Structure formats: C-alpha cells, structure tokens
C-alpha cells in the first residue's frame, strides 16, 4: 500500500503491519531508520564545478575535489566498501575517481568519451556504467578504465539518467528521445539485453534517476514538467512525489535514503530534501552559487551485500563477466562479454579475435562491428567527438589503425583501433573529404574532396602529397 510503510507492509484483517529490512529499525510504526551501528550518512554533490561533501542535515560542508582545468562535475556515485567516489566531467570529457577523503584522484576514462552525462556503480561486481549523451551510448568499464564494453548503442536518442540494482541485475536509464522519438524510461538487464520500456507517457525531460532498492521502486525527476515521480521496477503504480513550477522549477539530480529523496534544482540553486511519498514543501539542505548537478547519499545500507556470481574465475568467462538479471542465462545471473576486438564464441564463454569486421562512419561516430548481426559488440573503440561529422573511413591491418575524415573540423586523422595514438594527417585543403582509400602496398592514402573537385594522394611515410587532380 503506497505511503503506508517505508519498506515492508503486511496486510492484516482491517489493518496492516510495517517492518524493515536488516540494518534498519522501525520508528513510529512506519518509518525505517538506519541503525546507528551502520554508520553516519554523507551527502556528496556537484555545485556545477567542484565536488562537495557534507552531512544530510546541511552541516559540515567542505570541498572534496576542486574542479580540474575548469571542468564541470555532473554525474556522481560511490563505492562504499572501497571508499571511492566516481564522477563525470562533461567539459573535459573524462571520468574520474577519488578516495572519500579527497586523496588519490585518478582518471578512469579519457579516450573516446563524449559528454559523459551520468554514471552508476555496480558495487557487487565492481564495474562502472557510463552514459555518453552526445553519442547515445551506455558503456561498462572496470574501475581502472580497463575492459571497456559497449552495452547499449542502438535505439537511443539522448540518454541522461542512469542507475543499477545489482541485487537483481537491473539497469535503468532515462532517454529524452527514445525509439519512437518520445522521451522514455527503460529497464534492461545489466548486460544490456532485454530492454523494456517502463514509462513512456507524461514525460518531458526525464533527467536524474535513483532507486529505492528496499522497496524496488524507481524515482526520477523531470526538468521540463517540474516533478519527481516514482513507479515500481515494472513501471506500475506510478505516483507523483513533488510537483509544481514554484516548488520544483528545474530538478536535475536525485538520490534516496531512508524515507527522503534528495535532489538538485537549477532554479532554486540548491540541494533539497523531500519525503519520498509526497511533499509540497521541500526543504533546502545546501544552497549553491552555481547550478548544482549530480547528488548522492553515501551510506553502507544503500549498497547491500549479495553474492557475486562472477567472483570465482570470472564465472568461467574467458575475459569479462557481467551481472545480468538473476533469472538470466539459465539462472546463473550473469553473462560473458569480450574485450574490444573480440567476439563471443558460440559456447558463451570463450572469446575469438575478430579478423573481419565492418568499419563504418556516421555523424556521431566511427565504429567497427562484427558481421554477426546479433551482436552489438564494438571491434574498435568508437571514435567520437563533438562537434564532428565523420564521413570517409579505411583501415590498415598491418598496424591496427584506422583512417577517417571529420568534415565538421575538415581534418583527416589516423589512430589505433584501441583509441590511442591519434595524429592529424591533413588539415589543409581537405574541406569536406567524403571518402578515403588506403593503398597498403605503397602506403599511400587517397581521398576525394567534392568542394575542390579533386582526388588527392598522400605518402604516409612523410605526409607529403604526391598527387592532386
């Protein structure tokens, strides 16, 4: 019954009985409070520039990480047991991590990352999920940036919010322009399969999302229609928590702890708190001088322990083991994935190096995919970058490199298939190069340029142009 019990509700004749899960204590016959023994919660958020941390009552605020090179921290999440904070920076196009005391900052991702809007931590299998809004992609990566895998890249229009529940193997994300061109909220298995639209109506700009893992509900903010709403993991029993342009004029990020939601608002310039069932007068927890972005409440009980089926020998996977829904893969609750450049064997465990693949370009990216049409795996690390418009492409098997033209920048590039070693081959008189062809015997690169009505040839050994017609 909605709004009666914080967590568990037992129907009785003519009444009901509330109870709480392990680690919580029932108060006032309804509310579930975290036991004192489980630790004191902290609240971390981006003030539009730096990462700040304080308590959930509006006290003890301090700067955890100062902005890096005028960057903007946006999405933020944590790993409680590893005492680690993760965040995205949409100006630098990087993903960072740092210890909870502000030390030991590291770059997690900095190659082929384009507008990382949000992220989510899988605390069971120690993986990081990242949404890249400009190139419509959801990737998964280890905490050190290795073993990067693209999970979802088809039928995304403008993905924004992201959350995972590894206790059941679900991933949730918001998309401003889903498959039908309309905004939507989707649920998928954490390996990227079995996508299911859970909310598809009365949505404007669905942004940040968070999960009530105990009650198995998703909460989201809508920064166009000015509300916080919630539904079950299946998209049922949808309820409005906070609404109204005067009360919640432009929400962005959201987190949940006990019986409250904490959210950021760009117009109020604040981190605010509201009852998770209904609240017409949210309270300001922290005011900011700039537009606040991501927010997360840090506490042990937000990341409960469940057995990790990938913990022993990667679940039998040769390369990467990814959590999935607990019923998936014959009840194993995980699936095997392969690193970039490999394709999964029919046995579902081994990985085979891909010798033949399709290289293609689009406005958003240069990608290489296997000829196996059922696979979304990337064979090369996708080439991205805004503003860009990728057109001509070719491949050098000898040194595992690709050539591509960017007609937005009017440059021809070469780089390794793993995303490293990018170099400019030509940036003069290459306006609008529409096609490339690599001669692997003479090591020459040919290209067509309709603006100059020309075909040009470059000797790659010294980057000299040896012919121009």
From TrEMBL:
Keywords in alphabetical order: Lipoprotein, Receptor
Which InterPro entries does its entry note? 6-blade_b-propeller_TolB-like, Cueball_EGF_LRP_Nidogen, EGF, Growth_fac_rcpt_cys_sf, LDLR_classB_rpt
- Record bears the keyword Protein transport: no
The EGF-like domain covers 4-33, 309-352
Read off the Pfam families from this record. FXa_inhibition, Ldl_recept_b
Q: Which SMART domains match?
A: EGF, LY
Q: Where are this protein's LDL-receptor class B repeats?
A: 83-125, 126-168, 216-260, 400-442
Entry superkingdom: Eukaryota
Where are the coiled-coil regions?
none
Q: Which PANTHER family match?
A: EGF-LIKE DOMAIN-CONTAINING PROTEIN (PTHR46513:SF13), VITELLOGENIN RECEPTOR-LIKE PROTEIN-RELATED-RELATED (PTHR46513)
Q: What is this protein called?
A: Low-density lipoprotein receptor-related protein 2
Q: Which species?
A: Lates japonicus
Q: What taxonomic classification does the UniProt entry list for its organism?
A: Eukaryota, Metazoa, Chordata, Craniata, Vertebrata
């Amino acid at each position: 019954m909605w709004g009666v019990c914080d967590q568990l509700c037992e129907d009785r004749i003519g009444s009901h009985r509330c109870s709480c899960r392990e680690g919580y204590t029932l108060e006032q016959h309804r509310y579930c409070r975290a036991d004192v023994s489980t630790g004191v919660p902290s609240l971390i958020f981006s003030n539009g520039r730096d990462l700040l941390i304080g308590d959930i009552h509006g006290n003890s605020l301090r700067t955890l990480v100062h902005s890096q090179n005028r960057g903007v921290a946006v999405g933020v999440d944590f790993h409680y047991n590893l005492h680690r904070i993760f965040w995205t920076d949409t100006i630098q196009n990087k993903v960072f991590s740092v210890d909870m005391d502000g030390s030991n900052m590291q770059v997690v991702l900095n190659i082929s990352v384009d507008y990382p809007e949000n992220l989510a931590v899988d605390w069971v299998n120690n993986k990081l999920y990242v949404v890249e809004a400009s190139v419509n992609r959801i990737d998964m990566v280890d905490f050190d940036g290795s073993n990067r895998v693209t999970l979802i890249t088809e039928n995304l229009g403008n993905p924004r919010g992201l959350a995972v529940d590894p206790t059941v193997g679900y991933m949730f994300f918001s998309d401003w322009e889903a498959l039908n061109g309309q905004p939507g909220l989707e649920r998928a298995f954490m390996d990227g399969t079995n996508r299911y639209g859970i909310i598809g109506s009365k949505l404007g700009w669905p942004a940040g999302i968070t999960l009530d893992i105990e009650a198995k509900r998703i909460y989201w903010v809508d920064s166009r229609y000015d509300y916080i709403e919630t539904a079950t993991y299946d998209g049922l029993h949808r309820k409005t928590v906070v609404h109204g342009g005067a009360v919640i004029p432009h929400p962005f990020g959201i987190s949940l702890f006990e019986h409250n939601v904490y959210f950021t608002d760009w117009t109020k310039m604040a981190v605010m708190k509201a009852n998770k069932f209904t609240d017409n007068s949210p309270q300001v927890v922290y005011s900011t001088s700039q537009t606040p972005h991501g927010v997360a409440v840090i506490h042990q009980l937000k990341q409960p322990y469940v057995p990790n089926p990938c913990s022993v020998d990667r679940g039998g996977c040769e390369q990467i083991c990814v959590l999935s829904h607990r019923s998936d893969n014959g009840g194993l609750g995980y699936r095997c994935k392969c690193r970039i450049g490999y394709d999964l064997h029919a046995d579902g465990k081994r990985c085979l190096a891909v010798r033949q693949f399709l290289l293609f370009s689009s406005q958003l990216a240069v990608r290489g995919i296997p000829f196996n049409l059922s696979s979304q795996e990337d064979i090369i690390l996708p080439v991205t970058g805004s503003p860009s418009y990728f057109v001509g492409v070719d491949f050098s098997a000898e040194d595992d490199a690709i050539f591509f033209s960017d007609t937005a920048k009017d440059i021809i590039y070469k780089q390794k298939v793993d995303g490293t070693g990018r170099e400019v081959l030509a940036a003069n008189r290459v306006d609008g190069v529409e096609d490339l062809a690599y001669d692997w015997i003479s090591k020459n690169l040919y290209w067509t340029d309709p603006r100059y009505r020309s075909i040009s040839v470059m000797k790659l050994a010294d980057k000299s142009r040896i012919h121009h017609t």
